Amino acid sequence: MTVDLFHLALLCLAAFFAGFVDAVVGGGGLIQLPAALVILPSFPVASVVGSLKIPSFTGTGAAVWQYMKKVDMNWKLLAVICTLAFFASYSGSYLLTHVSNAFMKPVLLVVLTVVAVYTYAKKDFGQKEEHDISNDKELQRGIFISLIIGFYDGFIGPGAGSILILAFIALLHFDFLHASAHAKMVNLATNIGSIVLFAAKGNIIWSIALPMAVANSLGGFAGAKLAIAKGNKFIRIFFLVIIVGILIRFCWDVFKF
After folding, report:
1. Is this prediction's pTM over 0.70?
2. At residue 16, does pLDDT exceed 80?
């Protein structure tokens, strides 16, 4: 399966913006996946989804590289939750090849509506880091986050990065900047889990995936630098915009406008 240069350029443009958005607050899949499905209507959905995991991985990797240089990371916590997130994502992608994920979208629509309203109403949400929970509780909550959202990322995908950031803020009391940095590391693990599954099943179109990977990496690099430079207030606003975008996407899927 191949695509002409014009459509490949459109895919790369979408990948760049997806990488940029994903590096700041997650949710890049809201740009990349719909664009790819429109541009590649005759391609099998599994091949489109599988191919997009490569640019998602490289874009996330570029963002991680930037965050690692500027943000303090909890490597002990990340070692555990990234390992679990890998296996959870693999399991989610495996299940996706056997059943439909449509039944979860109405539930997520309600959850994300609450998230958007809460984040908007609570102005200090994610604005500062609070070290008020024990290491044991932090690890327990991190394990919970990695298993649930890792599985979700492999099974459904769009918005997983934003939900991860929310979880790091609400459950581990990180600020937006540290939550974004740690969420990217977990995203890296979930992308690898899905890639292993889709590659084994032959669902990756490398002639499309590799050019998009370069574009997504450039976007991830730029987005992470901007997030680090602008800080928590900017990330909060960006987060709200992306959450609203996710809500619109799920409304479309649930109510079939």
Report:
1. yes
2. yes
φ/ψ (deg, to 5) at 126: 75, 15
- Collect all residues with Cβ–Cβ distance below 8 Å to 256 and sequence separation of at least 6: none
State the distance between the two ends of the chain, measured CA to CA, in whole angstroms. Answer: 31
CB-CB contact of 89 with 153 (8 Å) = yes
Identify which of 134, 127, 158, 126 has the alpha carbon closest to the alpha carbon of residue 22: 158
Helix (H, G, I), strand (E, B) or coil at 75: helix
The answer to whether 202 and 44 are in contact (CB under 8 A) is no
What is the Cβ-side half-sphere exposure of residue 233, based on CA atoms within 13 angstroms?
1
Q: What is the DSSP string of 14-39?
A: HHHHHHHHHHHHS-THHHHHHHHHHH
Name the strand (E) or helix (H) holding 178.
Answer: helix 176-200
Q: Nearest-CA neighbor of 96 among 252, 201, 183?
A: 201
Sequence-distant (6+) residues with CB within 8 A of 234 are: 226, 227
pLDDT band of 118, cuts 50, 70, 90:
low
Give residue 8's pLDDT: 94
91 near 154, Cβ under 8 Å?
A: yes
| Number of domains into which the chain is organized | 1
Instruction: Kindly list the distances between the CA atom of residue 153 and the CA atoms of 69, 162, 186, 188, 245, in Å, as whole numbers in the listed order.
Output: 26, 11, 10, 11, 17
What is the C-alpha separation between 104 and 165, in angstroms, rounded?
Answer: 20
> What residues make up the domain containing 216?
5-255
In this structure, the chain runs to a length of: 257
